[in-house]
Amino acid sequence: MLHGITGIDHLVIAVEDLEGARETWGRLGFTLTPRGRHRDMATGNYCIMFPSDYVELMGIIDPDLPDRGLRERMARNGEGLDRVAFAVRDADETAGALKASGYDIRGPVDLRRPLELPEGEVEPRFRLILLPDGAAPVINGFICHHDTPEIVRRPEWLEHPNGVLSIASLVAVAENPAALAATWQKLLGPGCTVLTDDTLTVHTGDTAIIFVTPDHLSLMYPAVADDEFPPPPFMAAATFRVADTAATAKVLDDRGMPYRLDPGGSIQTEPADTNGLLVGFES
């Protein structure tokens, strides 16, 4: 891919109740890290780590501090998949390449996130590149490089009872997906997009982002009521790779987590049960 982008780094899921979300995603069979907080910001998080990508549950823990627009976006869209971060090999090289391509970026910006461990506080460090509005449409994309990956990828945090290995795909909704193709080709390269009728698939390393119309979303997930989602554009679903969906289903059953099986054998939750996001599992 262009600009040194290598794939998806992580998903940011906005939640109203951070501790409640921790409990929900634990019932989904995920292992969560201890709680972190963003230095000098209103937000805290729990992360769900995989070998090559991860999920960040983000909520407000200190309302007197700035939140980079999180409360405003939740007031408009509700809970759910709020942003998607891309991974890069080198933040400075990517910043230079983006500027050379005409992007009015901000960064790299240093970010520290104190993390509360039983043995004491540690501080993972990241470098962010903030893209201009519309550069990564619908998914509110930005770029994240880890300066201290060894802190956040402890072996015990990479093992999940539900058997999840990585993020397989995302589904995003737009009125005219085809109109987004040129923008994504500029960011990731001409070979990253596939347009089929009114569906645009953007390939980002091992994870596909599938842009569909509202009508197509209803065909994909007929059991989900339209009023469970905000007006487009928005991100509707995240599907995770597992080794064995039957084993995953047993974990959900044991933990009392409701779900349904689609005709192809994949597992799906109701957005109302999982912080506004349809969560899927497939092998």
From TrEMBL:
Domain of life, per lineage: Bacteria
Gene3D superfamilies (alphabetical): 2,3-Dihydroxybiphenyl 1,2-Dioxygenase, domain 1 (3.10.180.10)
InterPro entries reported in the protein's UniProt record: Glyas_Bleomycin-R_OHBP_Dase, Glyoxalase-like_dom, VOC_core
SUPFAM superfamilies: Glyoxalase/Bleomycin resistance protein/Dihydroxybiphenyl dioxygenase
VOC domain ranges (all copies): 7-142
A Pfam family of this chain: Glyoxalase_3
Entries under PANTHER family matching the protein: BLL2707 PROTEIN, GLYOXALASE-LIKE DOMAIN-CONTAINING PROTEIN
Protein name: VOC domain-containing protein
Taxonomic lineage of the native organism: Bacteria, Pseudomonadati, Pseudomonadota, Alphaproteobacteria, Minwuiales
